[in-house]
Write a structure and sequence with these properties.
The protein has 14 helices and 14 strands. By secondary structure, it is of the alpha/beta class.
Length: about 375
């Protein structure tokens, strides 16, 4: 037991406008809506976590805020923050689903534990295998000319991995964009494709075969999350590696996915699995089955990006890079006190004990649309 006890819980609901609308096979997104969790201890420490839901994918910010305030506050107020697994087990057995709220809770507990022990979160969950990771930017602007300008700028910044969001327009539009990017940048560009469930299962194999000549690194989640038999059939039928995103959330899905031969790669997201340590469990199942892993993200601020960076840093193998571009290249503002570190096409592990990223109070208040509070005595 440590000498620290959690005294207060604050949930800050934020809306941060984006620089541009991003279109996906599952809809358009024009901003970042998150619930930030702030925990303080009776010893004066502050820990941060983030829930970043996407209604068509994981859940809602309202649901995440209520989960944290109404259901998790009674579990953690008065508790010792270093008892992470017992506390998370109670959260998981108290409330079904809500993986984003669980990710926020675990992150804030890990942030406090890191500050108590003087260790980075990546060290708390296994150790630092790397301090920088290749960044992948998602090309999702319905105006492709605007995207080409962005890509040129990012290319000069050192970004070499680009993921095209496909399936929201015609198949011919997707083929045109792939051909253009492959011709412009040759073999130096790493092209990835993400349908966000946008392909009809009955015609998915033929459409994916059309893309293979542009040599994408992988094709992500072509069909709906529940069309698992179709996803497995696609994975067996095509040569390009298939990645499961919406179809694999946590360790239970991963285990089932191995049995079904669902995909060649799993996308890891703390918001899907309910935290960093459950993501590492997904990664362990993937490793045992010869399945690759990738660092994905939702529409997140730099708080959740930092959690993802600690996860990526702790993975023994990472060949496909990671996202975490939102706070630098998509949001109109990075709400962190010190910006989330991205440079030369790389995401860098934030420095310092715990999470290593703290929100700027002024930015937090400016973008706040809701605030819930609980303390040990209320
Ligand atoms: Mg995806």
């Amino acid at each position: 037991m440590s000498e620290h006890r959690i005294r207060t819980l604050d949930v800050h609901v934020l809306n941060i406008p984006a620089k541009a609308v991003h279109s996906h096979g599952s809809g358009d997104v024009s901003g970042i809506n998150v619930a930030l969790l702030e925990l303080t201890t009776d010893t004066g420490l502050t820990g941060w976590g983030e829930a970043s839901p996407w209604p068509v994918f994981t859940g809602t910010v309202e649901g995440a805020a209520a989960a944290l305030h109404s259901h998790f506050a009674p579990i953690i107020l008065g508790s010792d923050p270093v008892q992470i697994e017992p506390l998370m087990h109670r959260a998981e057995t108290t409330l079904v689903g809500h993986p984003e709220a669980k990710a926020a809770l675990e992150c804030a507990l890990l942030d406090l534990t890191g500050q108590i022990t003087g260790l980075a979160i990546a060290e708390l969950v296994g150790g630092i295998s790397r301090t920088e990771m290749p960044l992948s930017f998602s090309v999702a602007n319905p105006d492709f000319d605007a995207d080409l300008d962005d890509i040129a700028q990012l290319w000069s910044d050192g970004v070499r991995l680009f993921k095209l969001k496909t399936g929201f327009n015609k198949h011919s539009f997707d083929l045109m964009r792939l051909e253009k990017l492959r011709n412009l940048f040759g073999d130096d560009i790493g092209l990835r494709i993400d349908y966000n469930q946008g392909l009809p299962a009955h015609d998915a194999i033929r459409q994916i075969r059309d893309l293979e000549s542009f040599r994408p690194d992988f094709v992500e989640q072509p069909v709906k999350r529940h069309e698992r038999a179709a996803l497995a059939a696609i994975t067996q039928a095509v040569d390009v590696p298939i990645m499961a995103d919406e179809s694999v959330f946590g360790p239970v899905d991963a285990l089932e996915g191995v049995g079904l031969k669902l995909a060649n790669i799993f996308s890891l997201k703390t918001m899907k699995s309910g935290g960093i340590r459950r993501c590492l469990e997904v990664a362990a199942i993937a490793r045992a089955a010869g399945i690759g892993v990738y660092g994905g993200c939702m529409f997140e601020t730099s708080i959740a990006h930092a959690a993802g960076a600690h996860l990526m840093a702790a993975l023994p193998e990472l060949r496909l890079g990671c996202e975490f571009y939102m706070s630098t290249f998509y949001a109109s503002v990075d709400i962190a006190e010190t910006p989330f570190p991205v440079s030369n096409g790389k995401v860098h592990l934030p420095k310092g004990a715990g999470l290593g990223i703290t929100p700027d109070r002024q930015a937090l208040v400016h973008h706040r649309t809701g605030h819930l509070q609980a303390s040990e005595n209320t």
